[in-house]
């Protein structure tokens, strides 16, 4: 009898594991957290294979499981920019690389049920830095690869506005950088990226009027890292990335408290770049999905950072 119960339990667990639906392994994708629905929104990216796969599906995580919304498909793309706009209660997607290897400048909005398209945005590009400025209620888009490497744009009042920058006292044009909102300084912070043929490790902040460099010791030069704002602990959490000249992939975790960087972990997800992460405001933890490993293989693992340690979800 005990053996029959054990066999039944094993079959039940195996069936549950087999029925679990998760996003395909990918890199160059994007994720946001929709605060109005308490849902993680993941879209696009590249998959494994001899030819490049541009994922065209949207996935959502409700805190327990993944699902594919019925009307979530859109033209496949990678290296796009995506941010949640709480003023509109919609996810904003911009640009990226579409099939054929072309840079795009389309703008789409996801409301949780449907995609809608807007007029074309800034010039076509991929891998720009993007963040939502909570104090000024505006989306900030900086640089990227394509026609707009030297441009900076702001999305407010449902329109794009170009911000004319001076020639000096500003970050160099770059791609594969990251920005996040600093709840302590009430500015948008930019770190790292790829500029002038090398990975960089400089740090800047945007106060809505001008850029100012922050000269502090912190993570080494890198690009294709991820950086998110933990508004509960008022920290910016940075993970992973790659130093281009040495091809060094990182698996370290750093936190910025508004004054200094601290390396808080070397354990957790394996070293990777081109991953995506969000801060889950409902569960109060950072969530990270996928990326690319040292063998240039797309990953499909899912992790959570609670401010102390990483835990693997699947």
Reconstruct the topology from this structure.
Layout: H1 2-19, E1 30-34, E2 39-43, E3 46-47, E4 53-54, E5 58-61, E6 66-67, E7 81-85, E8 90-98, E9 102-110, E10 115-117, E11 125-126, E12 129-133, E13 138-142, E14 145-146, E15 152-156, E16 159-162, E17 178-182, E18 187-195, E19 198-206, E20 211-213, E21 226-230, E22 235-243, E23 248-256, E24 261-265, E25 276-280, E26 285-292, E27 298-305, E28 310-312
Antiparallel strand pairs: 1-2, 2-5, 3-4, 5-6, 7-8, 8-9, 9-10, 11-14, 12-13, 13-15, 15-16, 17-18, 18-19, 19-20, 21-22, 22-23, 23-24, 25-26, 26-27, 27-28
Your description of this structure?
This protein has 314 residues and is mainly beta. The protein has one domain (25-312): Kelch-type beta propeller (Neuraminidase), CATH 2.120.10. It is built from 1 helix and 28 strands. The chain has one helix spanning 2-19, and strands at residues 30-34, 39-43, 46-47, 53-54, 58-61, 66-67, 81-85, 90-98, 102-110, 115-117, 125-126, 129-133, 138-142, 145-146, 152-156, 159-162, 178-182, 187-195, 198-206, 211-213, 226-230, 235-243, 248-256, 261-265, 276-280, 285-292, 298-305, 310-312. The strands form 8 sheets. It has a 4-stranded antiparallel beta sheet, with no helix packed on it. A hairpin with a 4-residue loop joins strand 9 and strand 10. It is globular. The chain starts with a helix and ends with a strand. Residues 9-18 have low confidence and may be disordered.
CATH topology: Neuraminidase
CATH structural architecture: 6 Propeller
Order of helices and strands: HEEEEEEEEEEEEEEEEEEEEEEEEEEEE
User: Could you estimate the helical fraction of the residues in percent?
Assistant: under 10%
Q: How many domains, as an integer?
A: 1
What oligomeric state do these chains adopt? single chain
CATH class wording: Mainly Beta
Q: What is the number of strand segments?
A: 28
- The Cα radius of gyration reads 19 Å
Task: Figure out the total of helices.
Answer: 1
Which residues sit in consecutive blocks of at least 5 with pLDDT less than 50?
9-18
Looking across the biggest beta sheet, what order are the strands in?
Answer: 1-2-5-6
Shape: globular
Q: Which secondary-structure class do the elements indicate?
A: mainly beta
**First CA to last CA: what distance?**
32 Å
Average the pLDDT over all residues and give the rounded result. Answer: 93
CATH homologous superfamily heading: Kelch-type beta propeller
Strand content: over 45%
Please describe the biggest sheet, giving its number of strands, its sense, and whether it closes into a barrel.
Answer: 4 strands, antiparallel
């Amino acid at each position: 009898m005990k053996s029959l119960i054990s066999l039944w339990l094993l079959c039940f667990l195996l069936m549950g594991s087999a029925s679990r639906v998760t996003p395909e392994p990918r890199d160059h994708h994007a994720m946001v957290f929709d605060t109005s629905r308490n849902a993680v929104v993941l879209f696009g990216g590249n998959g494994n294979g001899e030819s490049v796969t541009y994922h065209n599906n949207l996935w959502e995580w409700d805190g327990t499981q993944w699902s594919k919304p019925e009307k979530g498909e859109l033209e496949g793309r990678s290296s796009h920019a995506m941010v949640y706009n709480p003023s509109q209660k919609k996810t904003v997607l911009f640009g990226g690389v579409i099939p054929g290897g072309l840079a795009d400048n389309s703008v789409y909005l996801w409301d949780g049920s449907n995609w809608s398209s807007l007029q074309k945005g800034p010039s076509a590009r991929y891998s720009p830095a993007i963040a939502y400025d909570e104090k000024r209620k505006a989306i900030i888009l900086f640089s990227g690869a394509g026609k707009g490497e030297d441009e900076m744009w702001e999305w407010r009042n449902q329109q794009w506005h170009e911000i004319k920058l001076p020639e000096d006292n500003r970050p160099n044009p770059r791609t594969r950088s990251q920005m996040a909102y600093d709840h302590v300084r009430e500015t948008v912070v930019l770190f790292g990226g790829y500029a002038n043929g090398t990975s960089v490790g400089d740090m800047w902040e945007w106060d809505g009027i001008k850029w100012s460099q922050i000269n502090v010791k912190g993570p080494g030069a890198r690009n294709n890292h991820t950086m998110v704002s933990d508004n509960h602990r008022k920290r910016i959490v940075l993970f992973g990335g790659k130093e281009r000249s040495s091809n060094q992939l990182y698996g370290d975790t750093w936190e910025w408290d508004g004054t200094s960087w601290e390396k808080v972990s070397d354990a957790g997800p394996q070293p990777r770049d081109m991953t995506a992460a969000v801060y889950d405001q409902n569960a109060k933890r950072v969530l990270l999905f996928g990326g690319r490993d040292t063998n240039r293989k797309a990953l499909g693992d899912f992790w959570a950072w609670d401010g102390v340690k990483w835990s693997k979800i699947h």
